[in-house]
Each structure stands twice: as structure tokens, then as C-alpha cells.
Amino acid sequence: MTATKKLSDESLNLVSGGTCYETADDSKLLHYFLRGKPGQPAEYSPLQIRTGDHGDEIKAAWASIGVDATIYSGSDFFDPGAANVYKMKGKVVSRQTVVDYVNYLIEEERAKLDQW
Fold first, then answer.
1. What is the per-residue burial (b if ≥16 Cβ within 10 Å, else e) of 77-100?
2. What is the pLDDT of residue 4?
3. CA distances from 88 to 5, 65, 82, 98, 116 (A)
């Protein structure tokens, strides 16, 4: 009998994103948040993520808000073990954590506009 190792919920949440759909969603979210600001990426479809090398552009967009990301797209998308990795303050975090962070920043901007 072989023992199997189960991942905790916390460890499972750190299994990083990396599907072309998630990366395309990253580009859209960052495009919306960074509109008119340096680092604003284009919005990409999943097919464009799979076939084009857009990882550096999306990585730069994440970096502009303090997230260190390793993004796979195009020629490196199918590399063995290729999965996007996100870090905040040097600590690996889940994709959901960085998405929540962007949504928090969006809400902060809306609150500032509401004060006008």
C-alpha cells in the first residue's frame, strides 16, 4: 500500500494559476485598473495568451502595483511545470490574493472619486 500525501487547503490555494484563461483575465483586470497609467497592458484573449509572447507585458503590469509575477505565455506556455507564480513582499501568494488586492485598489480609487 502506498501512502498518499494530501495538500492542506492553504497549500492548495498556493497552487498558482497559469491557464491561458486566468492569464487572459489577469490582462483584462490590469488593463482596467491601470487605464491611462504606465504599465497598462493590452487585453488578451486565451488564444492570444497561448500563441503570443505577452508574459513580460503582464509581468510588468503586475510589477507596477507591487506584485512580482512569473507569467507564462506563447512559446513558454507549455514548458514542463509552467504555472504562473505571484509574490507580494517576497512571499508566494495565490492568484486569488493578487486579484483581491487589485479589486481592493479599485475600490480605494472609487472611494476617492466619491469624495469629490
1. beeeeeebbbebeeeebbbeebbe
2. 57
3. 28, 10, 20, 8, 31
Domain boundaries, the chain: 13-115
Q: What is the pTM of this model?
A: 0.80
Strand (E) or helix (H) holding 66 = none
Cell numbers for 52, please give them.
503570443
Between the CA of residue 103 and those of 12, 62, 73, 77, what are the distances in Å?
22, 13, 24, 26
Q: What letter represents residue 85's amino acid?
A: V
Half-sphere exposure of residue 20, counting CA atoms within 13 Å on the CB side?
17
